[in-house]
TrEMBL record:
One of its GO terms (molecular function) is dioxygenase activity. Signal peptide: none annotated. PROSITE patterns: FE2OG_OXY. Coiled coil: none annotated. The keyword Metal-binding applies. This is PKHD-type hydroxylase. InterPro entries: Oxoglu/Fe-dep_dioxygenase_dom, Pro_4_hyd_alph. It comes from Pyrus ussuriensis x Pyrus communis.
């Protein structure tokens, strides 16, 4: 998604910003509740660029692939950079993002490990339910390459075992989707567990109907 020279430019700019933060003892917001290293890009002048990135690239793709989770009505973003390595955050636990659609781009540099592991999309109620075998998906980072996924797709990052890994994250949100979600209970069009439960209810109802028919026909025959 991003050319090597742009990745380097962005990493350099983040380093400049962090250098300034350290020199001036300026207090900055960390990217989210889980990452201690990195910074919010919107805080140092990149908000407009990231808005355009969302509008021109993420929205058209999300409209096609993620319409059921608000992908066609994305309207705000939270953009940040995270750093992993032995002297940074090492790994990231299993979680869902505070986003409808997440863009995750690896900016480099040299590293090993750090694979993402995905374990199925879930609604709030089912966020801790079991993983089905077909939901297991692992993704190795390649500098410049991006992955776009639903925010509710449960995932985590394995340990970055050597070097330093820097990733750009763009959490894209839809205020329309968030408002509508308040009035819904069934998310079987995107939650793996809601879908499984719905199928199970249908299976039981079909089985009950069959039994009913068998009983009736049995009575008629006798
Ligand atoms: Zn559910």
């Amino acid at each position: 998604m991003l050319q090597p020279d742009f990745c380097e430019l962005l990493v350099t700019e983040v380093e400049n910003f962090q250098g300034w933060v350290n020199e001036t003892n300026f207090r900055i917001m960390r990217p989210n509740t889980m990452n201690r290293y990195g910074c919010v890009l919107d805080d140092f002048g990149l908000e407009t660029m990231l808005d355009k990135l969302m509008e021109d690239f993420i929205c058209p793709i999300s409209k096609v692939f993620f319409p059921e989770v608000g992908g066609s009505t994305l309207d705000t973003h939270h953009g940040f950079v995270v750093e992993y390595g032995i002297d940074r955050d090492v790994e990231l636990g299993f979680h869902v993002d505070d986003s409808e659609v997440t863009l995750n781009v690896c900016l480099g540099k040299q590293f090993s490990g750090g694979d993402l592991f995905f374990r199925g999309v879930r609604c709030d109620k089912h966020v801790n339910s079991e993983t089905q075998s077909e939901e297991i998906f692992d993704y190795p980072h390649v500098p410049g390459h991006a992955i776009l996924h639903r925010g509710r797709h449960r995932h985590g990052a394995r340990a970055t075992t050597s070097g330093r890994r820097v990733n750009l994250l763009l959490w894209c949100r839809s205020s329309v989707f968030r408002e509508l979600k308040k009035y819904q209970k069934d998310f079987s069009n995107w939650c793996g567990e809601c879908k499984r439960e719905k199928k199970e209810r249908q299976r039981q109802s079909i089985a009950a109907t069959k039994l009913e028919i068998l009983k009736r026909d049995g009575q008629t025959a006798s």
